Every structure is written in structure tokens, then in C-alpha cells.
Amino acid sequence: MSKLGIVASVLAIVGSLTIASFSASAGDGVAPCVHKDLKTDLVKQACAKGGQPAAKDAMKAFNKEKGVTSCNKCHSKLAPSYDLKADGLDQYKKLGGK
Fold this sequence. Notes:
Blueprint: H1 3-26, H2 41-66, H3 88-94
């Protein structure tokens, strides 16, 4: 392989990595929480700090602490809307959630 071919290959790799890094940094935005009328302190605080991923992590930790084995016990739908069942909020409060 000639020196020109090696230089061209290196430049192509560097260019690809540069474009990939710009693309990745442009998508770093955190997905906001879907619901705007949040009825629990735990989810309100998590949404404010880190959007939907933080709220999901907070609820998973709460469920683990309280021995809840499935998100579907309180939610009729999961991602992306996380709709609650009619008694979902009551179940949360009975487990000590505020």
C-alpha cells in the first residue's frame, strides 16, 4: 500500500470518528417525562433531575424496596406513556409513597 493510500485511510477514519462524535453529542438530550401533572413527589423530583430515565430508575428502586415484582401491577401501559391503572396511585400510596 502506498503512503498516499495510508494517509487517505487514516483521514477517512478520523473524519468518520469526528462525524460520529458530533452526532452522538447532538443526541445527548434526556427524554422528558411524558406526563406533566405528576401526582407523586418521587416521580416529580426524578423528572426534574433527569427526565423519564430518572423517573423509571426511581420507580424501579421503589418497587424493589417494597417488593413489587412488576410495573404492570400499577401501570396499564409502559413506555412511552406509562399510563396508570385506575388504582395505581392508591397502590403506590398504600406502599408508603407520597
